[in-house]
Design goal:
- It is a single chain.
- By secondary structure, the protein is α+β, with helices and mostly antiparallel strands.
- It has a single domain, classed as Aminopeptidase (3-Layer(aba) Sandwich).
- The chain contains five helices and seven strands.
- The chain has a seven-stranded mixed beta sheet, sandwiched between helices.
- Helix 1 packs across helix 3 and helix 2 crosses helix 3.
- The protein is elongated.
Length: 206
């Protein structure tokens, strides 16, 4: 499917359940990789080992004492990711959410934007997900181009001297990171836990 066969418009209310399922599926595709990346870092392994050692004095089962901290850590991380990226944000100053629609009317992607938290921060992508059946067909790039045009229009309307777009990416989402770098974005900063990166932020001056 070529990008020219795609259009982007605001999400209709009747499309909300479909869009929510798309967001949840997108998070599910990366959450296991993010959890594996985070929980195999040395500090996390030490904390899990300490928790297991403590539980051995409480639980009769060695296997349960070993597995319970891992299960709880993975569950907490997945719930956090789903709460952050697996739901629709409230409407923001940049409008939306928007959906990418194929010529036949099939919704194949979703995008949401929000203003940055400070002056000069520009706009931020808060949701960007493509249906697994439409990936690697230009949908993500089409949504990104639309986000850039909205960010420029919003910056001009706010009297900002420059337009800027920031896109947060989970550390395990190598495909998205590669797409952004191919579109001229640069990794700017990152955040995570215990000194290890879980999310990288890519930005571009527009």
């Amino acid at each position: 499917m070529a990008p020219s066969h795609l259009s982007v418009r605001e999400m209709r209310e009747d499309e909300k359940p479909l869009v929510l399922e798309m967001l949840k599926a997108g998070v599910k595709d990366t959450e296991n990789r993010v959890a594996l990346h985070a929980l195999t870092r040395p500090p996390a392994l030490l904390l899990l080992a300490a928790a297991s050692s403590g539980l051995r004095f409480v639980l009769a089962s060695f296997a349960l004492a070993l597995l319970l901290p891992v299960f709880l850590a993975v569950a907490a991380m997945k719930l956090g990711l789903r709460a952050r990226w697996g739901s629709l944000p409230p409407p923001g100053g940049l409008g939306g959410p928007w959906v990418a629609v194929r010529g036949s009317g099939d919704v194949c992607g979703v995008l949401a934007l929000a203003p940055g938290t400070g002056a000069g921060d520009g706009a931020r992508v808060t949701r960007l997900s493509v249906s697994r059946w439409h990936r690697r067909r230009g949908v993500g790039r089409r949504l990104l181009a639309f986000a850039e045009s909205r960010a420029r229009a919003w910056a001009g309307g706010m009297g900002e001297p420059r337009a800027r777009l920031v896109v947060p990416v989970a550390v395990a989402a190598w495909g998205v990171a590669g797409m952004l770098e191919g579109c001229g974005y640069q990794a700017e900063r990152s955040w995570g836990c215990m000194g290890y990166t879980l999310v990288r932020e890519f930005s571009k001056e527009l």
